Amino acid sequence: MDRYPGDYVLHNLPLLVISGLETGGDETEPITTGRTHAFLQEGGFRLKVDIPAVRGSLATQLLQSFRAQDASEVPWHHRSLAARNGKVFKIATVGRVYTLPPRKAPPPPYSPRLAAAVANGSPPPPLVLHSPLSPLTPGSPLYPDGIISSLWITKHQSRLPCALLTFFTLSSDPKTSSLADNKLKSEINSIRSVLSSTNYRTRLLLVLLGDNDIDPSEVEDRCNNIRRATGLDGKSISFLPHDSSPAEIEDFVGSVLSYLQPLCVEYYRDLSKHARRKRNRNIVPQPTVQPGTSSILSLQGWNVRYEFKLAVFAEFRQEMDAACRNYETAYETLFSPKVLDAIAVDSPRFNEAWLLADIIALRTIRCLLWTDQGTTAVKSWISHRERVKDLVNRKGIGTDNYGWEAWQSTWTRVMADLISRSGYPPLNVQNPENPGMLPVYARTSKPLAAGEAATPWEQLHHEGYWLDMSRICVSKRRKWALQIPEEDRQSPGHSSASMVAHKSRFYDTYLALEPYREFPNDGSAGYDHVKEIIETLNAAIVHFAKRGQLRKVEILELHKGLAHLSTGSWSAAVTTLQPLWKKHNWRRAGWWKLLQHLGWALLDCVPGTKNHTLLIQLLWELSTSVFEARPGVNYDLPVALKALSPEIAHPSVAIDADEAVSPLVPAFAFASPNVFVGEPLECQLSLVSRAQARLPPVHLTEVKIVFEGSLRPIHLVSGEGQSPEQIPGRAEFVDVSLQESLSSTAKRSSAGTIASMTGVADLTIPPLHTRIFRFRVIPREAGEISIASITLLIDDENFTLAVTSSNFEHSTPHWWEAKNGIPIPRLLGQELNAFNKIEVKPKPPRLQIEAPGLRRSYYTSESIQIDFNIINDEDEDTIASVEARMISQIEGAAQLGWVASDSASDVVSATPSDIGVLTLPARALGTLPVSSNSTISIIITDTAIAVDHEVEIVARYSLVSEPETVLTKTLTVDVGVIRPFEANYDFLPRLDPDPWPSFFDAPPPDAESASAQGLRHKYSVAASVCSFATEPVVIEAILLTATQIVGGALCSTGTGLVRNRTERTAGKDEAAISVEILPDRTEIFDFDLTVQKLTLGDRHTVGIDLALEIGWRRQDSDKVNTTLLEVPRLIAPMAEPRVLLTVTEAASFPSEFCARRLDFMMENPSMHFLTFNVSMEASEDFAFSGPKACALNLVPISRHALTYRILPNKKDQWIVVNLKVVDAYFGQTLKVLPGGEGVKVDKKGNVLVRV
């Protein structure tokens, strides 16, 4: 849009002029002088204030805040207006002197009023004065038939404000404040007087800034006084204290602009009403002076002028819909037969009308983009281009000239600039399908009218498309400019006037230069077309890149490089084109013609840049048969380098064959997908020439093959080698013998001192020829082997070229076979070698590992020793070492170690290598003779957790004859550790036959202080031990131990006895047991447990943590292992009363039934006197003697036995005995507990006695 006058194309904003703030410049001249014209200054209304401008930090902050609110750079879109709440202004700052444009032009120097009287003797009519910019004013540039000038928009946008905001200082000095206020009133009245004389409706606002602290009431009084003296209303005068904070200043600025916004809208609405009234008169106004024979502006021209003014005033009000309607009306009227068609094409007014048509179309498009009508905007742009094209073809010199292309490039650039300035949101939203990318075009958001359709091009595309169109037009402009005849390119000083006039009829200079300036022939600089093309391409590339259109970006880069090439800018052309050459997109797409065009363009740059590296890269690729041979180019690299520069510094060039097109294509293939270590493997290296047929052979110095895996590199060095068989055709086999190499060959080679395999062969490859090199390799280590890279090396005396191929994933290798003496390629299948990989399997080991003594299961707390036999079944002696590791599901579940000798105490411990993995250091076995064996042992300890372990034994060995080949034998065994026993426990109280201690008994004089003196309770513990072992085990001992006692007591336990043996050996003192327990069998062991308080007065409950220790062994072993089982805590309430029942045989009666004596021992261990109500319930199962019901009193720490005799009517059965004991005070019923053998309690709580 820079080809058009600035005020013509910019979006119109209400003009707010700020006067009186120190700007740091000349205060006597407005800052808009450079954008004004003499018509807008001469005869204008001068506003001058003698009071100096306000200075200080407050004035500076205010000025910055107002300038920050300037909306000149805000995007031209309705969302920007909404974001600022409609407060959009163009803010201009001036000093104390400002000139408003004149409203009327002065009378012409020759006035008709001074002429003679008319025929009837009456005086001439008075002069009608108009605006200096009106077509009716003789001094106007539009007089007499111009439509409108950009100066009219400049007048309203830069010189005539809708509001004048002037600042003054309100003095705080009481001595001079009155004088200062009077001076202020005088200046304000002077400003108001000038504004009143202009008849402009510019709004005046006064802002007073405090210079120090002033009382608020005083400020209010002084402001009211100034307001009354100057005739201002209350809202037109404001005061801002000197100590206002930045936030308060921002709020003040916002409030001022909010107040002005509706006033400014009303100001421009009044101007619209004035223009509408003139239009509605439908007459041509009377000019100041009749133009004589010249034509005047027609009525349709005046309507165009009025509609344009209405549209511009609507833009000032930000009413873009109304502005768009007025612009469209003005545009259609302009193209009517009585306006634009009526203007002669050689008249300057024709270009002015063409310019106005462009401006109206531009502003119409901006209004459409403002309201998100992208498709309609594109259609409007196309419509204007077609109407102008038709106009030029009808009235002008046509479109086959550089002037038309200049207009087209400008018009397309306008569209790109409008899209950029509007920040069109549909083109700047993130693409959800591809984050980070912007959309290519904006979809139609509003439905089209019935019968209206939008083609793909009519969708609004981003700026890059329009810039690319502009570049195409500039290129065409340059093409037409180069065709200008020599005589037309002479300057006017060297041509006659008639010749100059004749030339002007054949060239369109609207938005273009004259022929002698477009492309001069005197050597001077004309229009720089290439510069404009490159700048346009750079801008377009940015937009295409933002949207991921990489192919388009590459094409534009190519055009950019060709533009540099056309001007001889060799370095710039190489900088642009070389990155395109290095990319592989065009190669993958097969765009060989385009790539050839690019390569030839780079070849043209080589002589100018003397770039030897670039020359080598280009000639190597362009010699491929997919390209055509360029005439005049020598593809022989040594000859081409000498021709470019005889003295070169031996350049070294590296080419990636995977990213470039190579005339030599290497391929490698293995004969088999699987091979064992130490076995020879057939390999083929094929070099296929794809060079152009007429080129010389390629002489390689060396071919280097590098593998991933254990295979050493292979170097094929150029030499005579083995002469291949002369087989007709274009392919031949070459057998190569590889030799071990630790140093470089006699010739220059890249092998260096790296251990590799080297062979000598003829490496000269003619064009369109294939040479297959066959050789054998022997893998020495197991694993996967694949091709890492193949490098073709040319080491000439003038240069070095290395072409490397390393990507073989997408290549399809072939295996060449001889058929009738002719090499024929065979496509490999889906085997591993079809992907340039092989699997080298370890040589089958014959070393055996056995674990003869491995048990099916092991048990916790058991020390596990496993012996492994290493047996050498190889045909010769071996050198072996053994490694071991153990994998556990739980970390720290066990420990692993080597048994270094026959003594299990000499152990080498393992170290953790991973979570749950213990690894033993390698153990050397030395040399194992044939058929010999060696035994190693590991020991697993601290097996406290039942978990499965996995023990892995790895034997690594090598034959004495092949020390470099390492073989591996692995044995994995599962070691399951389980718990050998599980147990359930029953705690039964028992009656202690010994008497209780008494408070009245003195302790024995020999009693120790630590001995227990309190109450004692006895319990019988029954442990039901179940064997989880998978084999019979022998329990040698079983103990019940107390691990922790809480509550101040002592605990003693006895050795457990098997219950069935207890019955057989009743009355015997047996201290130890030895019993065999079968798998899944349960044995019951009885234990006696005694708990005694340390002190007699301690009544706290006793808690005892117990453990069951079981000493056991396997049947085939004498080693006793100890397993520890947890026992639930025993809670012994030592202060609770209880009732214990014991049963004995009574004196025999002459009956078949035996009488029983029941002793109910009632205990009161508390410190209270307790009374119990006792009652015995009768039963049908027995007769009893004893108290039916009684009351029993127990003193503290005492017990009493209540005896009954019963005679049952049953035998060898359990009968229920129900004795109720109730605490008389608390009302609680005491449960009867079994105090000895023959008594039990069932699940219902009933007490049963064995009879």
Automatic annotation (TrEMBL):
InterPro entries: Gryzun (IPR012880), TPC11 (IPR021773). Residues 653-1250 form the Gryzun putative trafficking through Golgi domain. Transmembrane segments: none annotated. Residues 349-623 form the Trafficking protein particle complex subunit domain. This is Trafficking protein particle complex subunit 11 domain-containing protein. It comes from Capronia coronata CBS 617.96.
